[in-house]
Amino acid sequence: MRGHDIAVLGGGLVGSAIAWGLTRLGARVALLDEGDVAFRASRGNFGLVWVQSKGQGMAAYAGWTKRSSDSWAELQDHLRAETGIDAGFARPGGFSLCLSEAELDARIAWMRRLHNQPDMVPYPYEVLDRPALARMLPAIGPEVAGGIFCPIDGHANPLRLLRALHGALKARGADYLPEHAVEGIVRTVAGFEIDTTKGKLGAQQVVLTAGLGNARLAPMVGLTAPVRPQRGQIVVTERAARFLDHPMVTIRQTDEGSVMIGDSQEEAGFDTQVGAPILATMAERAVRMFPRLGQLGVVRTWAALRVMTPDGFPIYQQSISHPGAFLATCHSGVTLAAAHALHLAPHILGGHLPTSFAPFGPARFGVPAAA
Amino acid sequence: MRLSVDGRPVEARAGDTVAAALLAAGVLDCRDSAVGGVPRAPYCLMGVCFDCLVRIDGVDNCQGCLVPVREGMRVERQRGARTVG
Fold this sequence. Notes:
The structure holds two protein chains of two kinds. Chain A is of the alpha+beta class. Chain A has helices spanning 13-24, 59-83, 101-115, 130-136, 158-171, 214-217, 276-289, 337-350; strands at residues 4-9, 29-32, 48-49, 94-98, 126-129, 146-150, 154-155, 175-177, 182-187, 192-196, 199-208, 228-237, 251-253, 259-261, 298-308, 315-318, 325-329. In chain A, a hairpin with a 2-residue loop joins strand 10 and strand 11 (199-208). The model of chain A has no long low-confidence stretch (mean pLDDT 95). By secondary structure, chain B is mainly β. Chain B is 8% helix and 32% strand. At the A-B interface, loops of A face loops of B.
């Protein structure tokens, strides 16, 4: 196979968004993917495009998240024009609901700390007491004590986003190569030679976007990706006529009427089984927030693995020992899709991440940035 | 057994599911889909596809293939998404 400008290793939302961004700027891109045996976080996520609670401990992440949220409509417009697929993005503002005064006080303190950080990007949010909340969300249950509203929060349809990115890549002539698990990456005079389960492939640059697989791939090109799986479980109800116009951090009604309940966080290794105790707790809290959910039947549950770093923030990194090798990993592939496609990809194509990306390097974990 | 489908009397055998009874009675579609509003008929007959949703005795979105017929049962077309409130 003839050489590519850039090989992107990992065909989930992070890799697909970056690959599309690169292709759009004229690069000849190969997007390598595994098959259905892969963990595929991009097929299991919740679908929020969420800003309000992100970046406690790293203001740069809050800014990056807001920038992606601000660019999401533009990404959706591009993808719709190129593929006819609507990624379902809406930005009606989102809520965190609290089921007691204590929960509300803790949430308010969290938001104050978040927004008091040096260099924190400003954006509006409101603390709502119960009467104010009930005016905006008449369906809340009697136990809801209050909440936080952030007008720039939204949600999207993650499966259609992935489908649209892949469709746009195909239309632009990028090579999507499924079942190409990467076994080795070697530096060559012309760039990199990538050894896969289906043969070798050459590219001038490589971008590692393999999610949990980045932990194994990163050392091959002098990078570091201390990522671990964190299980999240999701409950999906039957479709119902719209009654919830806004996403909550744990509950949203999709554009097709299903209600999704999520945001559990468990350390369970690579085990993707669901379990009744967690599902029951999630459902119970959801029904306390919106009692009418109790009328709905559950049609599916699933678990997927978040790609978590030690501090929960993304890693963006360029290799010092292997120039031309980059790495991107995060657990917010939907929220950050627009930033990856429109704001990160141009720097990768240019061969250099600017200093604004320095906070996202792995030096913050106290390990060498390059082996 | 006798049940009604949108007010029309339909005969069914004991042990039939609602979906089987509908098909046997020549009912070729039983609902309008929740997103596109287009007609749908029972398909997988094993509880997986959710295409046989009907309203049974006033309860929306029942899976017809999982519910045995009962004497006097009132089956109605499921029109789009159910409402909760």
